[in-house]
Amino acid sequence: MARSCCDIRLLLIVAAAAFIFIQVRLFTTQSEYADRLAAAVESENQCTTQMRLLIDQISIQQGKLVSLEEEKRHKDEECAQLKALVRELERKGLNSLIKNNKVPVAAVVIMACNRRDYLERTVESILKYHSPVASKFPLFISQDGTNQAVKDKALSYNQITYMQHLDFEPVHPERPGEILAYYKIARHYKWALDALFNKHNFNRVIILEDDMEIAPDFFDYFEATASILDKDETIMAVSSWNDNGQVQFVHDSKTLYRSDFFPGLGWMLTKSIWNELSPKWPKAYWDDWLRLKEVHQDRQFIRPEICRTYNFGEHGSSMGQFFKQYLESIKLNDARIDWKSMDLSYLMEDKFLNHFAKLVSDAKLVTGPDFVLKASNINGDIKIKYRDQQEFEIVARQFGIFEEWKDGIPRTSYKGVVVFRYKSPKRIFLVGPNSLQQLGIKDL
User: Fold this and answer.
1) Which domain holds residue 84?
2) Which ranges of the sequence are coiled-coil (predicted)?
């Protein structure tokens, strides 16, 4: 009996030892498998990371490849356009045109982009009066961009040389919410004027836009004023535009004025002026920039009483600003003026100051609230004094002329004086707080 108990204990000890041995082996095996599994997971993670890096590198290379392909496409397109332009210049014989008249009065450039119908209307207006003066005023169309309809229309005119501005650089506006088109327009103007003055070596250039009609005496007007522009260094440009040129505010087709306010909308400048402006040309809003005193440096602009251009551009980058209120009723001169027989020396700085001062001095002073009624009941020219911008706007609003100021002066003003007619030949002079002193007139 005792032997049996001993045998059982021995068996139990052997079984326990075997069990322990098996558990140790199982634990060792599980640990090995766990280590192998961890190593496998780590290896898989490394493979995944390397794969992602490889995918990123492939994406970057693909992006670069697409960018290079796009750049190549632009370069190919630009090269094709330039080749077409060279062929077009050769076909139209620009060189022979300039040789026939060694010193043209001015090149005339029409700035265009994507308005085919507007361009056609503008060109047809110009061609009505251009033939007799073709050698004096070589015509150009400068297109910004690749609108094919505009290009085809421009190339259809044998009398006009085509230029194309291709600019694929992205626009970075200086302030959020700005209209990007104004940046592109500024780039286009600089490119076109650089080309006309520096490449084609014109002495003067007249800038038109693709939404303008011209008057019958447009070319004669600019030919007559070109000599004044050359002689008088205090004149920065000659314009064909009067902001207050609505039919009820004008009367005399022969009358011209000096103005401290840049009118734009059909204007002529010289190469020397452009050489000054080109290096500092603004990124956008070039017309407002030209109205800054630090830019024009107290130089002035010649403008007519009755406009020699009509702006019909209700739709465009400015979205028809002022069109219904001011532009639609502008009077385009329809009288043939013999500018060659006219003496324009009164526009020279010293003479004009005395000439204009006498007009203002002779005008009758009107005071009181209802200026329009009083102006209607007085024969002859009148003058109305204003103390500041707010008071000017009140008076301007009564008559219906432009109220807007730029860089501290009202539109069309000379020495702070704004002059216009009012439903008759009589002149209305709105006289600023310092105007009489600047004109050399004793205060009233």
Assistant:
1) 40-90
2) 65-92
Q: Is residue 35 part of a domain?
A: no
With contact defined as beta carbons under 8 Å apart, do 295 and 233 qualify? no
Nearest to 435 by CA among 371, 373, 392, 390: 392
350 labelled catalytic:
no
- Residues 321, 383 within the same domain: no
Supply the pTM of this predicted model: 0.79
Euclidean distance between the first and the last CA atom of the chain, given in angstroms as a whole number: 151
* The domain boundary residue, chosen from 331, 346, 361: 346
What tokens appear for 443 in the block? 């205060």
119 three-class SS? helix
pLDDT at position 398: 94
Q: Is residue 403 part of a domain?
A: yes
Helix, strand, or coil (residue 170) = coil
* Closest among 192, 114, 184 to 148, alpha carbons compared: 114
Of the residues 287, 370, 388, 407, only one is catalytic, namely 287
End of a domain among 23, 58, 90? Answer: 90
CA distance 158 to 156: 6
Place of tokens 């007619």: 421
Angstrom distance (rounded) from CA 154 to CA 160: 8
Supply the CATH number for residue 211's domain.
3.90.550.10
Q: Are residues 313 and 238 in the same domain?
A: yes
For tokens 């356009």, name the residue: 81
Neighbours of 194 (CB within 10 A): 13
The runs of H, that is alpha helices, within 93-178 are: 94-100, 116-130, 148-155
Q: Residue 359 sits in a domain of what CATH number?
A: 3.10.180.20
1 three-class SS: coil
Write down the pLDDT at residue 165.
96
Residues in contact with 403: Cβ distance below 8 Å, sequence separation at least 6, in sequence order: 392, 393, 396, 397, 410
3-state secondary structure at position 40? helix
Long-range contacts: 150-155, Cβ < 8 Å, 24+?
150/112, 150/113, 150/114, 150/115, 150/116, 150/119, 153/116, 153/119, 153/120, 153/123, 154/112, 154/119, 155/88
Residues 82-139 pLDDT 10s: 666 655 554 555 555 555 546 899 999 999 999 999 999 999 999 999 999 999 999 9
